[in-house]
Structure formats: C-alpha cells, structure tokens
C-alpha cells in the first residue's frame, strides 16, 4: 500500500479519535448514508476481501449502528427521511452483483435486525454472461504460486496466503486505475483454463433463489446490467441495452417493477452525466455509484448520482463512525478525488 493509500485509510480514523472528525462531520456528514456490500460469507478465507463480508462483521456493524440510534430504512424510504433531516441519522443497505449468499447468509442476519436492503442483480450472474474477471483472477491466484502478467510488468511469487493476497490486490488495483488492464488479465485467466462464466453461475442467484429472496418484505431487487461492463466506455446504445435488458429480465422473473439501478464499477471513470441521463430515461427512480459520501437533502435533486460507503470485514466502531459522519468523504476531497456530480 502506497503512502497515499495509507493516508486515505488511516487519516479518517486519526481524525475521529482526535476530535477533528466532529468538525469535518459538520461539513460532510449528511443525515443518511447508503452502505454498500457484495458477497456475505460464513468466514473470509480468500483474497476478495473488498467484496466478501463475513457474517460476524455484518452483525457487528448492524449492532453498532442500532446501538447508536441509526434508523434502518429502505431505498424507497430514504427520500422522505431526507426531507426531514432533523428526524435523526438513518442508513440504507445495498448488495451488488447478485450472489446466492445474499439469500443464504445475509438475509438471516438482516432479518434479525429488521434491516431492509436492496440487492442489485447483474443478470449475467445467472446466465454466465457477466464479465466476472475478479472471480477468475482470484481462482488463478489461488491455484498458482507464480503469477505473471508481462504486458502489465507484473510478476509475483505467492506461495503463502500473504503473497497471494498481495498479488490479487495489486492486480485488482491496476485494473481499477486503468481499465485497459482488463484485457491482459482476462487473457491470462483464460489461458490457465479458468471459466469465469462457470464461476459466476456457481456463485450467483438462480431464478428460484431470486424469487425466494425477493419474497422477503425486507428485500428490494434492483438492476445492475447484464454483463457488468464499464458503461462510460460503451456506446449510448449499448448502455441503454444493458440497462433495459437487465431490468426486463428481472421483472419477468419477479413479476414486479424494478426501479433502482447500480452502475458497474461506479466510479468517475465508469459513470457520469450521460449514464445518469440514460438511467433516468430507462425509467429508474434512483441510481447509486461507488463514490464515497453521505446523503444530503440536495440529493433529492440528483437521485442518479447517489454516493455509498462500503461495509468491510475490518470495519470497527471508529471506521463506521467516520463513514456515517462523512469523514472519509472529507479526506477524499482533500486528496483530490472526484465528487459525484451528475
């Protein structure tokens, strides 16, 4: 982890303990926050730490939020709460991609805390059409002690867990820094006989599981495209097709309206004003990014650029306090990270 990354991860916590966080929260801490998760597992033993949240960590976060009088609301309730900011802090929970473990592991936990949540389903997780490069990369790293990507000038000796974790996270960081890196990563994964489509189908909700999950009164199903592609790099026609096809597929399975959307990748290099306009034109009521921050009443005028804060396995009371109070967003702004404006 470089100096900038260390500063980004540690400075908010230092600010929290020093009291600076209170001053930052006054400027950056809105009345609510949308929390982002992906996969929920019994325990985290692989390298996908950014998307694998252990059940114990999810329970710990929910308990801390509840003990601190943070109200759990659905995405549909959030706008009304934003019109009454004096009614106290609130949060909404979202899960991206459509993992079967959202039904198996997440739902029982959320039920115990009566916490509504939205699952943004990429229909390609069911069909295998999703570009699940991250699952393929994890499988490649897991099964090999030497990882080489000459086109990216990457070579890793990874004979133990720490080495494999370092290799995976380094390559993942390269991809998110430059999406052109995806091509050689995909090629290398395929050259080792790894079928990303099969991995996605194995991990994704099937139609029966999706119906079972959606039957819970706590659950809202949203769309997340078919193939999980970078929409900013696609033509307007492709973006519209990804949005409408995933929405139509989900509505056909569930026989109900799907009105919420999550942008794949979700950062400033993957979605912008054009994608927001297309989400609106498709008929969605809201769209979430992966850009950090809390919710303010002003977001009622920008429902297609909603920020989120991740919940991870290593979250503590201090980090949750920073996310809820907007301290992380404050430090990202100071470090020059782009703010969502669509």
Share of residues in helices: 40-55%
Count structural domains.
Answer: 2
- At the first level of CATH, the class of the largest domain is Alpha Beta
The H-and-E topology, N to C, reads as HHEEEHEHEHEHHEEHHHHEHEHEEHH
Q: Can you tell me the CATH topology of the largest domain?
A: TIM Barrel
* Uncertain ranges: 337-342
* Average pLDDT level: 89
CATH architectural type of the largest domain? Alpha-Beta Barrel
Instruction: Please tell me how large the radius of gyration is.
Output: 19 Å
Apparent shape:
globular
Number of DSSP helices? 15
State the fourth-level CATH superfamily of the largest domain.
Glycoside hydrolase/deacetylase
Structural class: alpha/beta
First-last Cα distance: 31 Å
Largest sheet: 6 strands, parallel
Q: Indicate the proportion of strand residues.
A: 5-15%
Number of strands: 12
Structure description:
The protein has about 350 residues and is an alpha/beta fold. The protein folds into 2 domains: about 260 residues, Glycoside hydrolase/deacetylase (TIM Barrel, Alpha-Beta Barrel); about 60 residues, no CATH class. The protein contains 15 helices and 12 strands. Strands 1, 4, 5, 6, 9 and 12 form a 6-stranded parallel beta sheet that branches. The protein has a two-stranded parallel ribbon with strand order 2-3. α4 links the parallel β4 and β5. The C terminus is likely disordered.
């Amino acid at each position: 982890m470089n100096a900038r990354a260390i500063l980004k991860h540690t400075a908010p916590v230092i600010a929290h303990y020093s009291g600076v966080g209170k001053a930052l929260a006054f400027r950056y801490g809105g009345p609510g926050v949308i929390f982002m998760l992906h996969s929920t597992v019994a325990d985290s033993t692989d390298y996908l730490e950014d998307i694998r949240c252990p059940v114990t960590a999810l329970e710990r976060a929910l308990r801390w939020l509840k003990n601190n009088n943070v109200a759990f609301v659905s995405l549909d309730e959030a706008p009304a709460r934003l019109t009454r900011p004096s009614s106290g802090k609130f949060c909404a929970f979202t899960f991206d991609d459509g993992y079967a473990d959202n039904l198996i592991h997440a739902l029982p936990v959320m039920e115990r805390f009566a916490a509504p949540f939205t699952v943004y389903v990429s229909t390609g997780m069911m069909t295998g059409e999703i570009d699940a490069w991250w699952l393929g990369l994890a499988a490649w790293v897991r099964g090999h002690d030497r990882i080489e990507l000459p086109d990216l000038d990457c070579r890793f000796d990874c004979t133990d867990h720490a080495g494999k974790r370092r290799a995976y996270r380094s390559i993942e960081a390269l991809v998110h820094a430059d999406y052109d890196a995806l091509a050689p990563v995909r090629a290398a994964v395929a050259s080792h006989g790894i079928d990303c489509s099969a991995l996605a189908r194995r991990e994704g909700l099937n139609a029966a599981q999706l119906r079972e999950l959606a039957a819970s009164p706590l659950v809202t199903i949203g769309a997340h495209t078919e193939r999980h592609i970078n929409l900013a790099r696609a033509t307007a026609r492709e973006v519209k097709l990804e949005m409408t096809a995933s929405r139509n597929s989900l509505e056909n399975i569930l026989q109900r309206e799907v009105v919420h959307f999550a942008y794949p990748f979700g950062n400033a290099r993957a979605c912008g004003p054009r994608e927001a306009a297309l989400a609106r034109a498709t008929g969605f009521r809201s769209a979430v990014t992966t850009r950090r921050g809390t919710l303010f009443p002003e977001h009622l005028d920008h429902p297609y650029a909603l920020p989120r804060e991740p919940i991870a396995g290593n979250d503590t009371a201090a980090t949750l306090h920073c996310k809820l109070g907007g301290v992380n967003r404050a430090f990202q702004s100071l470090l020059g990270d782009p703010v969502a404006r669509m």
